[in-house]
Design goal:
By secondary structure, this protein is α+β, with helices and mostly antiparallel strands. It contains 5 helices and 7 strands, in the order ααβββββαββαα. The protein has a 3-stranded antiparallel sheet with strand order 3-4-5. It has a two-stranded antiparallel sheet with strand order 1-2.
């Protein structure tokens, strides 16, 4: 392209002009400022390459989330939203049952608080009345999807003892009970 001093990558075009050709069918259509080679991020102490508005990608994305110079908290701790399945979801990044984004379904939080411990991997919470937004403790029940590892009687008995140890109010004395 006339005036472009960058190295060609494909079809005789630089990366930016090739993308414009691929996206728009015309390499001369460019959207937004082109990063200039050798330009660094204008944020204090940052040595990354300039991407847009004089900032690297990290600082540019932070700049986009700002409002009047104050960073918005994208997920305030008290905010409740619904996921695509209709469950109420809370932002609880420090809870052991939270996902990687710090989100936790409210019914799982309520059950965890009722039990006084985090839920185990094989445990789920069922809404008795079927309403996924009704998270009252009396409407929730704990379900376990754990299954014995084999079909031999010894395996099933071992699994049953383990389930009793996990959920029984008192320890089961193998000699007295069995």
């Amino acid at each position: 392209m006339p005036g472009c001093a960058r190295e060609h990558e494909a079809r005789g075009l630089c990366k930016g002009h090739y993308y414009a050709w691929w996206a728009h069918g015309d390499p001369s259509i460019r959207k937004g400022p082109t990063p200039q080679p050798g330009r660094k991020c204008s944020a204090d102490g940052c040595a990354r390459r300039h991407e847009a508005r004089g900032l690297c990608r990290l600082h540019y994305e932070r700049w986009q989330r700002q409002k009047n110079g104050v960073r918005e908290n994208l997920r305030p701790p008290g905010k409740v939203s619904l996921d695509r399945h209709g469950y109420r979801v809370l932002y609880r990044p420090r809870h052991p049952n939270a996902n990687g984004a710090g989100m936790l379904k409210e019914h799982r939080l309520v059950m965890s608080e009722m039990l006084g411990r985090p839920l185990r991997a094989h445990e789920t919470v069922h809404h008795r009345n079927g309403d996924r937004q009704d998270n009252r403790p009396e409407n929730l029940e704990l379900w376990s999807h754990s299954q014995p590892p084999g079909q031999r009687v010894e395996d099933k008995l071992g699994w049953a003892r383990e389930m009793l140890r996990l959920y029984a109010a008192r320890e089961i004395d193998d000699e007295n009970e069995w």
